[in-house]
Write a structure and sequence with these properties.
This protein is mainly α and 192 residues long. It is 85% helix and 0% strand.
């Protein structure tokens, strides 16, 4: 679409500017943004090419937060291409950086992505382990929005393992929590 064409043109202009100014962080941001655009368009090879350029610039200046996010996007691209082992490697790199940075949210997201990857390939024990670690992090953070989704993921693993009682238990917890969140949102909306 023309919006996507404009986004590419705009980012290419930014790339030229940041390159002339030798601003590697912003140059990496512009490449990362193009990579994300191609990711959302499901053009994963193009996405990986631009994410790789962002990675090289951010690695040169040791921009850890950017690398952490970039690894996640690379992992999702590889996962969507069916390359699950490379995807896991990327998620683990993101987890390592998040751990070094003591970024609890980044750690939880990494466990979510690792768990989902294991779920897709049918390695339910590792999926469950990752989701339980994510759940622990989410509880420590008092992350009421994401905790129900983690319970859902755990319930789905138990369902795949044919442990229907545990699946039902976790899915019920998730549903109750989600209903509470929806009620709070409705009350806040009505109070305006």
């Amino acid at each position: 679409s023309s919006d996507n064409d404009n986004a590419v043109r705009y980012n290419n202009q930014l790339i030229d500017i940041w390159h002339r100014l030798a601003n590697w962080k912003e140059l990496g941001n512009a490449y990362h943004d193009l990579g994300r655009l191609y990711y959302y368009l499901s053009l994963y090879n193009e996405a990986l090419a631009y994410l790789g350029k962002a990675h090289r610039y951010w690695e040169e200046i040791e921009y850890k937060w950017g690398l952490q996010i970039n690894y996640r996007y690379e992992g999702v691209c590889y996962r969507n291409q069916g390359n699950y082992m490379v995807s896991l490697e990327k998620y683990r790199h993101s987890l390592d950086i998040a751990s070094d940075r003591q970024d609890d949210i980044g750690i939880a997201i990494s466990f979510l992505l690792i768990g989902w990857n294991y779920y897709i390939i049918g390695d339910y024990n590792n999926a469950l382990n990752s989701y339980n670690r994510e759940l622990s992090m989410r509880k420590e953070q008092k992350d009421e929005i994401h905790i129900p989704f983690t319970y859902t993921n755990i319930g789905l693993v138990f369902f795949q393992q044919e442990d229907y009682n545990k699946a039902e238990e976790y899915l019920e917890i998730s549903a109750k929590m989600q209903m509470e969140i929806d009620s709070i949102i409705t009350l806040k909306t009505l109070s305006y």
